[in-house]
TrEMBL record, chain A:
Assigned keywords, A-Z: Signal
Signal peptide, first to last residue: 1-21
Keyword Signal attributed: yes
Domain of life the protein comes from: Bacteria
Signal keyword on record: yes
Pfam families (UniProt xref): DUF1800
Name the UniProt record assigns to this protein: DUF1800 domain-containing protein
Annotated InterPro entries: DUF1800
TrEMBL record, chain B:
PANTHER family according to UniProt: BLL7424 PROTEIN (PTHR43737), DUF1501 DOMAIN-CONTAINING PROTEIN (PTHR43737:SF1)
InterPro entries recorded: DUF1501 (IPR010869), Secre_tail (IPR026444), TAT_signal (IPR006311), TAT_signal_bac_arc (IPR019546)
Organism domain of life: Bacteria
Residues that span the membrane, as ranges: none
Originating species: Hymenobacter armeniacus
Protein name: DUF1501 domain-containing protein
Length: 575, 525
């Protein structure tokens, strides 16, 4: 499609909803909940856009701030200016080495509530016995701890990949109703975040949280429960292809679901200690026969190890690798997978994944160091998830959070607040909406656009406004953006020049260049109606008397106004 | 989420939600529990337009002390106007010739001048001085709220929760510009809505946005911008108001020539279109004239500052004409302010440096069309540190306008500004009475009428008792005589009215009581 056609088509799309703008709000007035899908979102995949035609050839172009920022935006939550600068001063391969290095396992979540009397505040509850009375506060503790891991991430891909696997091998903490099992699940995801996906698939199959979530614990020889077997095939591994015959989804059939369910019979979750166990008497002892999709493979009775045979069989299917790689592509690059991407990116990466026996790190390295990844057409096109937006905001603006020394109650309290903020934006850590994960990663054709609607967008603006303004206080601790500190950290020549200052914030905070009009607009927020040199004058006056309240307030309010305007741009939602 | 929650959410939040040319049109803070100053909502159809002259306007080159020309020339001979070019407002005070249109409005009773407005201990920082003027604080006090924002917060407790609603469907305040004004910053949220720019505003009205690049990022950008426009709860109200009114005045310059005129054109359109917004803030930048405020060679009546003053005059003149054509002129008053004036003494670069007090203009059919206060007194040989001394505290102007225009009680004013400030009659006496409609004073006669020149006449009426004013106004509403301003007993009154020194012509004799007022035409022969 040529440029003119594109513009015409978009003009038509834009006009239609405007004409109807007054009515839908009234028409949906009585509905509850409100629209989840914006009427402006894709009706079809935007395949007519200019798209990168680059391949997996290793990127050999310039390596600087722009490239480093792109890489870190996609792999971290809100890279900070120092992180981007450090990466830019390093090399792509060195940065990737760091990103792909798994950090040490974090200490488990601790009790922060007087409700949970099993352990004192500050000690972990994860090894205590289950008590329904404590479940609520433990689940909150787990969720908040998890958010704390995102906030405290180093320059490692581990947290973004942990979240990826959470969205892939979904459980809902609310469903499993045992935070200790939830923690074990989190631990497992984090352990394999940058590791072997086949091993993760094996372990997650019998982790107690999953046994509960997809009813594996209720599956017996006499009454196999197909839930896990079905999702394993449909969502976790080979994926569902087109329906080509009754009960045949190209990559697997209904008979395969039944066979897989039989393989998985006999497993149950165990509450104390948290774990799972196999009961031979509940297990289907027959030989399981799979369809031609699996080469008519047979799995012989193998007791407690039989599920391993099943996972091995599934991972022999090349489609499993392609399915996983497509999901990674949508997570890290963009949601449109056209024929060129399928051929030049997905297929080679799938081959690489198989060649590496499903170790994910080599695939990530190939993708994240490719010409395709650094193609300018692939920059700035991801819409931030609520977690990316909110955690990214806090990290990028280097907001100081209560340290452990302030006490775990204050620390978890603030993480809890952020979880609430993120949940209002329609993403709840530990509780994706269903077994398929967040719709933004699979629901065609809208995909990431699903994050943005008339409800969630103002929520995003609320949190940026709050944090650039008065901040949020809980337990006597306040989180707030300190624009003065951010500016003071810049080179003196940058901080004292309004154009350089704005440019520095812009390249930190938005992933695509702003127009001259937009830069003027930002300058007008910083320096309303004044010539450029007046910023220098005011800034120098502040520097000359840094403890003078009035001088400090003078530059602070202007920086706040400029950053508020910058965070109000549509571009700020892009990554 | 219920529909109501949704509306509250979006009203609360649109902060900087980007739209038009990728620029924000909404800017509200997050939804707070407001510590609202309790105050009953007052019914009002009055509109206040605040024009912020950014950069520090050189007041001495706008309102000129004709009685001190030697001192003026000694201090700023390189930039001062030729005395003959100054347009006289009174015998002692004149206005820059670039403001001929305002001079004309003054003569038609639609412009007032307040001399030497400032505050004690002036600050010479743009940022700080602007904060002081927009917050209404003392020089050494930092307030995080705006003066008009505190007023609106008292009027609309709880904003933005529950807004817009049936009673208040429209923005409480609108800034024409890309950012909301600090003048309307409330205790926790800004009470105003910013309309990005004049061109963006027009885009808002037509529902369009700038093109984004034909890339994946551009595609997502366009999508987000559309959702932004959808979430702006006041968009349809603004569009509807704008659709109801045309620009009627031919006096506006072509769009893009005079940004203040472009802004005021939008204000006129929205006011006449029935938007219930009470406060509009417009801005004109460029007043930071450190160098070349007049050309290095050529007439001092031209140059940067003259051009800026000309823009103000042209814009306000067209605005008043537009309002008149829409018959809403009596509902709107405006004032200008700048963070400071400039130094008495010019610098060698044909410019002026940061100063302190400066004149302020008020405009509208309801303003008191006079020069308030005497000219500033200039030293015979001003040095670089000499500044115009303050005569009126800027908060006197704010509080007087709030009191006369929005009926804010003195007690509330004290609450809003921390203490009371002397009243300045910048609005015409009884400006509000035309619509407030207090009872007429019955059986009120003036005899003889017509009355002889330099003679006297008698006002006869039945007093209700209490404080009474009997004043004589000229046809422009200027008070020319005050016969009575005191407590009178209840009952029949015969009050002498001295006419000495008054030119022949028609005058209005007004009797004002606490709850009644009356007016008669008196002709002096």
């Amino acid at each position: 499609m040529n440029r003119r056609l594109f513009l015409q088509r978009n003009a038509a799309v834009l006009k239609t909803p405007t004409a109807a703008a007054a009515t839908p709000t009234a028409a949906t007035a009585a509905q509850d909940p409100p629209e989840k899908v914006s009427r402006y979102a894709n009706k079809v995949l935007p395949t007519g856009l200019s798209r990168a035609t680059s391949t997996l050839v290793p990127y050999a172009g310039p390596w600087g701030y722009e490239q480093a920022a792109h890489l870190l935006r996609r792999t971290l939550f809100g890279p900070t200016r120092p992180e981007i600068q450090a990466a830019a001063a390093s090399s792509l391969s060195a940065v990737l080495n760091g990103l792909l290095t798994a950090p040490a396992a974090p200490a488990p979540p601790v009790n922060v509530s007087t409700t949970d009397t099993s352990v004192p505040i500050g000690q972990t509850w994860t090894a205590e016995v289950f008590d329904q009375n404590f479940e609520g506060v433990r689940r909150a503790s787990l969720r908040d701890w998890w958010l704390g891991q995102l906030l405290g991430q180093g320059a490692s891909l581990a947290e973004k990949m942990t979240l990826f696997w959470h969205n892939h091998f979904v459980v809902e903490l609310g469903d499993i109703n045992d935070a200790r099992m939830g923690y074990e699940y989190c631990r497992l995801l984090r352990q394999h975040a940058l590791g072997n996906v086949k091993q993760l698939a094996k372990d997650v199959t019998v982790t107690p949280a999953m046994l509960r979530y997809l009813n594996g614990n209720q599956s017996t020889a006499g009454a196999p429960n197909e839930n896990y077997g079905r999702e394993l095939l449909e969502l976790f591994t080979v994926g569902k292809g087109p329906l080509i015959a009754p009960g045949n989804y190209t990559n697997y059939t209904e008979a395969d679901v039944q066979a897989a369910a039989k393989v998985l019979t006999g497993w149950r979750d165990q509450a104390a200690p948290v774990g799972s166990y196999f009961t031979a008497s509940r297990h289907d002892g027959t030989t399981k026969v799979f369809s031609s999709c699996f080469g008519n493979a047979r799995i012989a009775p193998n007791g407690a190890s039989e599920y391993l045979d099943l996972v091995n069989l599934i991972f022999q299917q090349a489609e499993t690798a392609r399915f996983l790689v497509r999901k990674l592509y949508r997570w890290f690059v963009y949601y449109v997978i056209d024929a060129q991407v399928e051929t030049d990116i997905i297929q080679p990466l799938a081959t690489l994944l198989i060649q590496n026996n499903y170790e994910v790190a080599p695939v990530l390295r190939a993708l994240l160091s490719s010409e395709h990844f650094f193609d300018v057409l692939n920059m700035g096109c991801l819409i931030k998830s609520p977690l990316d937006f909110t955690v990214g905001l806090c990290r990028q603006m280097q907001i100081a959070f209560p340290a452990a020394s302030a006490g775990v109650v204050a620390q978890y309290g603030m993480w809890n607040y952020l979880n609430g903020v993120v949940a209002l934006q329609q993403q709840t850590l530990g509780d994706p909406p269903n077994v398929a994960g967040w719709a933004a990663y699979y629901q065609t054709p809208q995909f990431h656009e699903l994050w943005i609607n008339a409800v969630t967008l103002p929520r995003r603006n609320q949190i940026t406004d709050l944090l650039i303004g008065n901040g949020y206080t809980r337990n006597g601790v306040k989180i707030v953006i300190d624009p003065l500190a951010l500016t003071l950290a810049m080179p003196a020549a940058t901080a004292s020049d309004c154009n350089l200052l704005i440019a520095e914030f812009v390249r930190l905070m938005v992933p695509i260049p702003l127009t001259a009009n937009q830069l003027t607009f930002l300058k007008n927020a910083l320096l309303p109606g004044l010539p450029d040199f007046e910023w220098t004058v005011e800034w120098q006056q502040y520097l000359a008397a840094p403890t003078n309240t009035a001088k400090k307030a003078a530059v602070t309010t202007k920086l706040q106004a400029m950053l508020r305007a910058l965070m109000g741009l549509a571009e700020y939602h892009l990554s | 989420m219920k529909r109501r929650d949704f509306l509250q959410t979006t009203a609360a939040a649109a902060a900087g939600t980007a739209l038009l040319s990728g620029m924000p049109i909404g800017a509200y803070g997050y939804s707070p529990q407001l510590a609202a100053l309790t105050n009953a909502t007052t019914q009002s159809d009055k509109v206040l337009v605040i024009i912020q002259l950014q950069g520090g306007n050189d007041g001495l080159n706008m309102i000129i002390p004709l009685d001190q020309y030697p001192a003026l020339m000694a201090a700023r001979g390189n930039i001062a106007l030729p005395q003959t070019s100054v347009l006289p407002l009174t015998t002692a005070t004149g206005i820059h010739p670039a403001m001929a249109a305002l001079h004309n409005l003054y003569q038609n009773g639609q412009v007032g001048v307040v001399q030497s407005v400032g505050y004690p201990n002036p600050n010479f920082s743009h940022f700080r001085a602007t904060d002081i003027w927009t917050s209404g604080s003392d020089s050494n006090v930092t307030l995080t709220t705006g003066w008009a924002g505190r007023y609106l917060d008292g009027e609309y407790p709880g904003f933005p929760t529950g807004f817009p609603n049936a009673q208040n469907p429209d923005p409480l305040a609108i800034s024409i510009g890309s950012v909301v004004s600090n003048c309307v910053q409330g205790p926790s949220v800004n009470m105003g809505m910013a309309i990005a720019s004049t061109t963006s505003f027009l885009q808002l009205l037509s529902g369009g946005v700038d093109a984004a690049p034909n890339t994946p990022a551009g595609h997502e950008l366009m999508f987000i911008r559309q959702v932004v426009s959808q979430t702006q709860v006041y968009t349809s109200a603004i569009q509807a108001a704008a659709a109801r009114a045309q620009t009627l005045s031919p006096l506006y310059p072509a769009a893009g020539q005079n940004s203040l005129a472009d802004q005021l054109k939008i204000v006129a359109q929205l006011v006449s279109g029935g938007l219930q917004t009470r406060i509009y803030v417009c801005t004109l930048g460029g007043f930071d004239t450190h160098t070349l405020q007049v050309p290095a060679t050529g007439s001092t009546t031209t140059g940067t500052h003259a051009t800026l003053l000309g823009k103000i005059a042209e814009a306000v003149n067209a605005f008043q004409d537009d309002l008149r054509r829409h018959s809403v002129q009596d509902r709107v008053v405006g004032l200008t302010f700048s963070e400071f004036g400039r130094r008495i003494k010019s610098n060698s670069g044909n410019g002026t440096d940061h100063g302190s007090a400066a004149p302020l203009l008020v405009f509208g059919t309801k303003v008191n069309p006079m020069v308030h206060g005497p000219n500033p007194t200039l030293p015979a040989n001003a040095g670089v540190n000499d500044n115009v001394a303050m005569q009126f505290d800027f908060r006197s102007i704010y509080t007087s306008i709030l009191q006369d225009w929005f009926q804010v009680t003195p007690a509330t004013l004290t609450q809003l500004f921390g203490r009371s400030f002397p009243y300045v009659p910048v609005l015409r006496p009884g400006a509000l009475l035309a619509t407030a409609g207090p009872a007429e004073v019955a059986d009120f006669t003036v005899y003889p009428n017509p009355a002889p020149r330099d003679g006297r006449t008698t006002v006869a009426y039945d007093s209700a008792g209490g404080h009474v004013q009997v004043v004589l106004l000229d046809t422009l509403g200027r008070e020319v005589r005050r016969a009575v301003d005191r407590e009178l007993p209840r009952g029949a009154q015969q009050l002498p009215l001295d006419l000495s020194g008054l030119a022949a012509g028609a005058y209005y004799c007004q009797v004002r009581e606490a709850r009644r007022t009356g007016s008669r035409i008196v002709v002096v022969e």
